[in-house]
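Project standup — Tuesday

K.O.: blocked on the structure for the chain from last sprint. Re-posting the sequence here as requested.
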Amino acid sequence: MNKLITWNPFGELDELQNRLGGFFLGGFPNRMGVLTRRVGNGDSLKLADWSPLVDITEDDHEYLFKADLPEMKKDDVKVTIENGILYISGERTAEKEEKKRKFHRLERFFGTFERTFTVPEDADPTKIRAEFRDGVLQVHLPKRPMPKPKTIEVKVQ
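H.V.: unblocked you, prediction finished:
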């Protein structure tokens, strides 16, 4: 009987990071983008199965978040803002194992993910919009018009 094992090219580095994890507070991503957190007995608690890559850019009018989510559908992705935090989460399901097909290596990631980002102060979260096309999620976060500084002249007595 063949058993399918996911290959991790950075397995030894992840193990070293897990051993050194006691020196860190809170969660930290490992080399494969999986967010882990140290727990009391020294083990790592996995908080997400994988972490998509995200580019963040801005122009004069908006912030743009682009997340690579290959082989996902828009219904598999959730975008929310809560208490000044932008959440991008979802789940990519694994292919069903075919009985006639022999797998030699699986390097793609499947399962749940969540990315969080602080919403910039000059952004207007009430006007956020997102679009999903060709495996790329684009989240548009418009900027608020910033009030022009007002000068008040103070009379010196």
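K.O.: great, moving the ticket to review. The helical segments are 11-20. Residues 80 and 142 are 15 Å apart (CA to CA).
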